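FAQ: What does a ligand-bound record look like?

Like this one, built around MRU:
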Amino acid sequence: MTAIAVEWLDGKLRILDQSKLPREQIFIDLNNYRDVVLAIKEMKIRGAPAIGVAAAYGIVLGASGIKTINKEEFHAQLNQVMQTFTGSRPTAVNLFQAINRMKKAARGDGVTEIRNSLVNEAKRIHQEEVTATRQLSQLGAALIKDGFNLLTHCNAGPLATTGYGTALGVIKAAKDKGKKVSVFATETRPLLQGARITTWELLQEDISVTLITDSMAGYFMRQRKIDCVIVGADRIAANGDVANKIGTYTLAVLAKENKIPFYVAAPTSTIDLSLSSGDKIPIEERSPEEVTHIQGVPIAPEGIKAANPAFDVTPHGHIAAIITEKGIIREPYTEGLKRIGSRFL
Ligand code: MRU
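The answer part, i.e. the structure of the complex:
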């Protein structure tokens, strides 16, 4: 069974509140764009492709809330709506790719036509992510051998993608092809997407999963218990450097040290050819409270200083392959990424 992350219900956006998983499965209906922006900021909806899809539908909601029928005024207000989305989460490029697509789609003789064009484009973006994640999963499954123990970080499954999943999609596709696979899922501090969501999704797929704390990864790699690492991505620079959930870089270094292949799975909507290297990727800094507290419960002395970068960058030299819907790319990444390009730009 695949959980539904977002659903467009003619005029409202229904999302599964991922911040409450796995204890509660609560669907919330969002009727205006500001609620969608907030849901993205508060990570009720999260994961790079899912953020892009949610923003696209959010822009549709924003457009339907604009009262004027004057085209110029409509565009001015629509730009403000889009601007609000750009400030929601800075690292996942899917958000900006989706906004750009919606900007280009905002065309038509009158405001009704523009609104129709926007809703069609949002549905297209959504459908493309579903198709792309399914295709990349099928391709990536070829890298997974029968009997493999894989390690994954954060959550890169159906909920993060509104589709089939990226890293988890590859694992699911390998299993569907009859390969026996098992997974080590890191808990992924501070917000525990691995412990809360990855294990939950894998259980539903009947895939064997063992939860470990982030700091146990090196131990299991050195014990030869892990055959490969596979993660998703939030932004891939033109040289193949990859931004993903904080802790990914540490895993890549450990994998290299232990001669374990480190794979990244992402749709081409996550590629950003405008940035020459990962150094230029903006890294989201989130509230220190996410570090000093676990699910609202304080775990550190009151008032302690805490840092909370939500992502890090893995240099391309640590990555054995990048799996996309258009093919599996290896070094030299600059050439491969240029050849397949970004689906959006
Ligand atoms: O902060 P999050 O939970 O949105 O971070 C998500 C990740 O880092 C995922 O690995 C990434 O978006 C890939 S999703 C297919």
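Follow-up question: can I read anything off the structure? Yes, for example: The chain has twelve helices and 16 strands.
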